[in-house]
Amino acid sequence: MTRQLRRGELTGISDVRRALRELLRQWGGSPEQAHVAELLTSELTTNALVHTDGGAVVRARLPRGTHAQVGGRLLVEVRDFADGMPRPRRETPDAGTSGRGLLLVEAMAETWGVREHGAGKVIWFELAADAPN
């Protein structure tokens, strides 16, 4: 699954979630893991659209040969076109609901990371179909 969104195109997040749900039907992960995948993808996509100038490219994929009976790992990547590497912000009393996306990824993903990619970066995470959170 690949979706490209323009800067500020927040209405496109619902399309990303819909496409991700289609992919998740093939995954074999628990309903809880599917919910986590949707939540983390939405958070990273929103961050890219709100805090960068070039939009976002969202990719999600399963290992080749993954079927519902097999399970496996889900990989989600969100690319933006901004310089600089993000860091999870530690909560402060006045933070409100802003700045929690990477904290959620850090807490809920099995693995995650950031890598440079041309003019920008890719933030990625993986979830195992059967991993408890």
Automatic annotation (TrEMBL):
Keywords carried by this UniProt record: ATP-binding, Kinase, Nucleotide-binding, Serine/threonine-protein kinase, Transferase
Record Gene3D superfamilies: Histidine kinase-like ATPase, C-terminal domain
Molecular function via GO: ATP binding; protein serine/threonine kinase activity
Residue ranges annotated for the Histidine kinase/HSP90-like ATPase domain, each copy included: 12-125
CDD domains named in the record: HATPase_RsbW-like
Source organism superkingdom: Bacteria
InterPro entries, sorted: Anti-sigma-factor_SerPK (IPR050267), HATPase_C_sf (IPR036890), HATPase_dom (IPR003594)
Alphabetized PANTHER family for the sequence: ANTI-SIGMA-F FACTOR RSBW, ANTI-SIGMA-F FACTOR RSBW-RELATED
Protein name: ATP-binding protein
Species the sequence originates in: Streptomyces buecherae
Lineage of origin: Bacteria, Bacillati, Actinomycetota, Actinomycetes, Kitasatosporales
